[in-house]
Amino acid sequence: MLALMPHGSCFLWNPWLTSLHAMSDGGVLVAYFSIPLLLLFNRRHIDAQMRPVLVLFAAFIFSCGIGHGLRVWNIWHADYWLEGGWSLVTATVSLYTAWRLIALMPQWLNTHRDLVITRKVAEHDPLTGIANRRGLEAALTALSYQPNVVHSLILVDLDGFKAVNDTYGHGVGDRLLQSVAEVLHSQVRAIDLAARIGDDEFVLLMVGCTPEEAREKVETIRQEIQKIYLSDLAPGPDYPIISASFGISNFDPNQTLSYSYQRADAALYTAKHSGKNQVEIATSAVA
To answer: In this structure, are residues 277 and 226 in contact, taking their beta carbons and an 8 Å threshold?
Structure first.
C-alpha cells in the first residue's frame, strides 16, 4: 500500500519515489519526536532559567515533526489546508522562540564565558600561571580513562627555597617561583602539564612517557633551573645557588594516584638526601 496510488502527478505513481519520500519524512518525524522526549526524561538536569526556552524549543521541534508527518499523509491525500495551517503554527512557535533567544542568548553566552574563566582561575595558580593541585587532579582524572598507558609523574622541589625567602624576602622568592614555573612550562610538550601544588613544590605530568624516557627531559629542566638569574640580586659570593631535586614515578591509570605520588615522593626524598640537585627514579616499592 505504501507505493500505490499516491495523490498528485509529481510522484507519477512511481513506487520507489513514493517510498523515498515517505521513509525520509517518516525518519525525520521520529528524530524530531525523540528530541522533546529526551528533554522530558532529563528535565531534572535543566536549569530553571533555561526551562521556559527549552520548552519552546521542544514545542518547535515537535511541531516540525508533525509537519513532516503531514507531508507523508499528503502523499495519498489532499489536505494541503491542514498542512499549510500546521506550517503556520510551526512558524509562530519558531518566531516566538527566536524572539525569546534574542534576549537570552547574550546572557547565556556571558554565563558560559564566566564559567570557563572561573574554571580556569580555579585550576591555575595565581602566582605562576601554571596549573594548581585542582588542575593536576583534573588532568590525572582524564588520563585515568586511558587504560594500559603509562605516564610519568615528576615531583619537583626547590633546594634551599626557605633560605632565599628568609634572606632576600618573599618578593624575591615569588619571582624565583615564577621563573621556575616558566622553565617547567617552556620545557614540557603541549600535551604535558606543569603544576604548582605547594609553596615550592611543583609537579610535572608527562603523557605517554615511561620514567626512563622522562628522565632525559627532566635532566634538561634541572640544568635550566640552575641558569635562572634573579635580576633583583647582584652577582657575587652571596648570590644564592638555585637548584631543584626531582623524583620520578610512573603514573599507571590502573593504579591509584596516591600510590604513584608516594613512589615519586620517595624518589624525591632520595634525591634530597643524596646531595640535592639530582634526579631519581622510584624503585619498584615505596620507600
So the answer is: yes
Integer Cα distance of 277 and 225 in angstroms: 10
What does the pLDDT look like over 50-83, one tens digit per residue? 677 788 888 888 899 999 898 888 877 778 888 8
Helix spans in 77-210 (H):
80-122, 133-143, 161-168, 170-187
Q: How far apart are CA 282 and CA 267, in angstroms?
A: 5
Does residue 164 sit in helix, strand or coil? helix
Helix (H, G, I), strand (E, B) or coil at 130: coil
Residues 174 and 190 sit within 8 Å (Cβ to Cβ): no
* 240: nearest Cα among 265, 277, 267: 277
pLDDT in tens, 21-35: 888 988 999 988 898
Cβ–Cβ under 8 Å, residues 166 and 101:
no
Cα pseudo-dihedral 207, 210, 216, 222, rounded to 10: 60
Query: Is the separation of the CB atoms in 230 and 173 below 8 Å?
Result: no
Cβ-based neighbours of 43, under 8 Å, separated by 6 or more: 51
C-alpha pair distances (Å), 155 with each of 57, 135, 202, 251, 263: 50, 15, 6, 12, 10
Task: Give me the residue label for grid cell 610519568.
Answer: 152
- Angle, to 10 degrees, between the axis of helix 161-168 and the axis of helix 170-187? 140
d(Cα 22, Cα 26) in Å, to the nearest integer?
A: 6
Q: pLDDT at position 285, please?
A: 47
Number of Cα atoms under 13 Å in the Cβ half of residue 113: 6
Q: Is the CATH code 3.30.70.270 the one for domain 133-281?
A: yes
Q: What is the pTM assigned to this prediction?
A: 0.60
